[in-house]
Design a protein that fits this description.
The chain is an alpha/beta fold. It has 3 helices and 4 strands. The chain has a 4-stranded parallel β-sheet, with helices on both faces.
């Protein structure tokens, strides 16, 4: 289709996003396999739960999730999230840093990316895991709203591209 692009370069002339008009971080939750938080083009844009201390085995912010520093692993009910290729690629499309010499640029250069792992081998059904993952996202947004931005995350969008057996919802897999 003619003129069917998003005109990103024109938008980037105005700004590269990442903040609301009030200066608050914009967070996009990638609900998928798990984003590589150390990826060169993403590391600066990975959401961090300021109320949590990494690796201490304590729910420091009392939100019901232990060590959820950059998101939640709903597959294993842990804060530790392994980085996977697909989710990292998706996160890059959404929010890879621009003009950093990596030759990769996301649509929103400065958005914060929250990683929520719902795909992988685990003891729960995939449907249950996905619901747990989205439950985490909703709780983070509610905490942000209830605390006037002092806790949680200003999640403005989510992305899930894990599919449903070619859209056959009767499969029971998702």
């Amino acid at each position: 289709n003619y003129d069917a692009d998003i005109r990103a370069t024109m938008a980037w002339d105005i700004g590269q996003g990442g903040k609301t008009v009030d200066g608050e971080d914009v967070v996009v939750a990638v609900v998928d396999q798990g984003v590589d938080a150390t990826h060169l083009s993403l590391a600066d844009n990975i959401w961090t739960n300021a109320g949590e201390i990494a690796g201490n085995g304590i729910d420091d912010d009392n939100n019901g999730y232990v060590d959820d520093v950059h998101g939640w692993n709903a597959v294993n009910d842990k804060g530790e999230i392994p980085g996977e290729r697909h989710a990292t690629h998706v996160a890059g499309i959404i929010g890879a840093r621009g003009n950093d010499g990596s030759q990769v640029t996301g649509v929103n250069w400065k958005a914060k990316i929250m990683s929520v792992r719902v795909l992988g081998a685990g003891s729960k059904s995939l449907t249950s895991t996905a619901l747990d993952g989205y439950g985490y996202v909703i709780k983070q947004k509610k905490a942000w709203l209830d605390s006037a931005g002092a806790k949680g995350a200003n999640v403005v969008a989510t992305n899930s591209s894990f599919g449903v057996d070619y859209a056959d919802c009767s499969s029971g897999e998702y």
